[in-house]
Amino acid sequence: MAGVHLLIKSFPTFLLRPNTPSPTPLLLLRHIQTPFKPLKKTTPFPPNQTSSLLSRHYSTTSSAVTNDDDDVSGGREFVALSDEKLLSQCDVDTYKSSGPGGQHRNKRETAVRLKHIPTGIIAQASEDRSQHKNRASALVRLRSLLALKVRNTVDPETYTPPLELLQILPAKSTIRGSECGSQIGPNNPKFALGMQALLDLIFAVEGSVADAAKKLGLSTGALSRLILSDDSLRQAVNEFRTSKGMKPLK
Amino acid sequence: MNLTSLVRTSHITRTFTHSIKPISSSSSVSLSHTPTSLNPKPKTPLYLKPPIYTTSLSSLKKFQKWAKTLSSSVNASFKDSSNLHQELNWLLQDSLQNPNILQTHEENDNLVALRLKLDDLYDLWTQRIEKRRPFQYIVGCEHWRDLILSVEEGVLIPRPETELIVDLVNDVIKGGGENGDLGNGLWVDLGTGSGAIAIGIGRVLGDLGRVVGVDLSDVAVRVASYNVERYNLQDKISIKQGSWFEPLSEFKGQVAGLVSNPPYIPSGHIDGLQPEVGRHEPILALDGGDDGMSDLLHICNGAASMLKSGGFLAFETNGEDHCRFLFDHMETIHKESFCNLKIVPDFAGIQRFVTGFRS
Question: Would the CB atoms of B144 and A104 count as touching at under 8 Å?
Answer without folding.
Answer: no
